Amino acid sequence: MSTISRLVCLAGLCAASARAQFTDFQGGKLYLKMEGNMSPFALASNTGARGSMNNVTSLYPSATSIFGNPAALAYIQTMDVQTDFFLPGLGLGVSSERTKVLRNNLRTPIKDFLAGDNNKVSNPVYPDVNLGLYQSTSLGGFAVAFGGPSATLAAGVQQPFRGSIDFGLGGLRIGLGLPEDEADPQSDSIKVLLSVDAFARFQAELNDFSLGVAGEPWKNVRLGLAYQRYTIDMLLEAGARVDGILQRAGQESYFHGEGVNYHDDLDAHGSGDVTGAAHGIRMGASWQFARHFGVDAMISMAETMFLTGSLSYEYNVLPSLDFTGDKVMDPAKMNPTKLTLTTRTKQTIQDMRVNLPWEGALSMHTEWANFRMNFDYSYFMRGMSVHYTLIDSADAFDKANKDVYRDHDGYDSVEATRSDNAFRLGLEQQFALGIQVYQVFFQIGGIVYTVTEGDVLSESAAYTPQSLPFLPTMNVGYYFPLGPKFTATVSLVAFPVSLFKTSVEYRY
Question: I need a surface site. Which of 67, 71, 105, 269 has the fewest CB within 10 A?
């Protein structure tokens, strides 16, 4: 992917600053398939899809209250089973007509660019695009609770996130011409013809397993405790095969040459396998201080998740390319005897750890015959942050000799830097107002946050949108009985994370 992005950057910048001309273009075939489900913040899961935020309220008790306020489990006196799942597709798949529109949207800017005065492409072939974006049928959560006269026990598992990306690009062909002396357009030119094939596959999932217990030690006062174990798995595999020919004053050099003692390819590839686990705890309380009014409280904490494994990628580029300077491609940096000499750059992310949020929340609610309302407020004692070590290494290039440096053993010398970095999602506060009238529910709220990124040596600047200083949330849907013991709840829109999330609850 890095090689492709750099080629695109080369295409756009060379034409402007180095008088480069496109001479050949064949778009190839682009394939992209994305599939996944996401329902963090419990906006469309847990307590019948009707709970606000992390289900601080105990208005909708069910087995999945172990993922919200475990004190709500004490309201269950029999057996309760609940499943959360996504319906298949429901309009999220990309139809053939939509694919045509996306294909045209991709071709139009390419066509306009190639038709410019600086390019001489005779018969361009535009890319063939095949897209598939789906929300698949998936079980997002399952929980069971057994209620008794003195206590309620519950167990369950949910999957707040699962996703996969499958990308493929084949048959891309780019031809580029560049005068060796910009002051003399009639001078010998450098011509490059490249063909590109690339792929990328990525899979990730986050799971949450929980055990909980709740009871009513005093009249109208209920307490609950839940243990949670979070696990994460990520798998990445990507690569790009770039081949071609470079011509200069009649001299031809081929990439991927045999028997050469220097890098002569433009390939790129990446890989990664990361897993991690962490333990957490939830404590909740519910107090029904009046017939129609109550108040709930919840505290959630989790230990730091240390991730095993690493993510890395590397790519090769021509030393004559300089994306930071005024001239993108400098023929003076080319070695006449090694026209296809390339240098390798590699980046590795390792020693990753994730600090999961710590949260304290309160909820006030009222309940009548056909009307329920709750207002939830959550304060984050600790936001989410990701810490990692970045190792950046590159082949050392000798500008005087126009070749890579050699160590005393004759191998390429490598310049490496190591830095500790952090990304922080500064969750600060969250609020929501939920209303249910008969069988229709509506919840609206927001999340106040900041985003910070930087390393330990530089000052990190926090980012907060000025126009909208919080992320709005909304959950709209309805519930209906499927029989004397089954109830289905459909969350039509749970902005910003879910569409058409459905819960089915069985209460014995």
Answer: 105
Beta-carbon contacts of 184 under 8 Å, excluding residues fewer than 6 positions away, are none
Per-residue burial over 293-312, b if 16 or more Cβ lie within 10 Å, else e, is ebbbbbebbbeebebeebbe
Q: Residue 320 carries which side chain, given as an amino acid letter?
A: S
Residue 197 and residue 168: Cα distance in Å, rounded?
Answer: 8
* Residues in Cβ contact with 103 at an 8 Å cutoff, skipping those fewer than 6 apart: 127, 128, 129
What does the block give as tokens for 388?
A: 């990692």
Angle at 51 between CA 47 and CA 57, to 5 degrees: 95
As a whole number, mean pLDDT of residues 428-448 equals: 89
- Mean of pLDDT values over 14-42: 69
Q: Are the CB atoms for 300 and 282 separated by under 8 Å?
A: yes
Please give the span between the terminal C-alpha atoms of the chain, in angstroms, as a whole number.
53
> What is the number of other CB atoms lying within 10 angstroms of the CB of residue 386?
17
Which residues are CB-contacts of 478 (< 8 A; sequence separation ≥ 6)?
439, 440, 441, 489, 490, 492
Torsion of CA 90, 135, 128, 272, to 10 degrees: 180
The token pair at 262 is 């220097």
CB 507 within 8 A of CB 79: yes
Q: Is 136 exposed, middle or buried (0-12, 13-18, 19+ CB in 10 A)?
A: middle
Whole-angstrom Cα distance, residue 507 to residue 63?
A: 10
- SS3 of 122-158: the string is CCCECCEEEEEEECCCEEEEEEEEEECCCCEEEEEEE
DSSP letter (8 states) at residue 87:
P
In this structure, the number of other CB atoms found within 10 A of the CB of residue 1 comes to: 18
Task: State pTM to two decimals.
Answer: 0.81
Cβ(416)–Cβ(393) under 8 Å?
A: yes
CA 313 to chain centroid, in Å, comes to: 17
Over the stretch 202-239, which tens digit does the pLDDT of each residue have?
Answer: 999 989 899 999 999 999 999 999 999 999 999 999 99
State the Cα–Cα distance between residues 269 and 238, nearest whole angstrom.
5
Split at pLDDT 50, 70, 90, the class of 182 is low
Burial of 14 (0-12, 13-18, 19+ CB in 10 A): buried
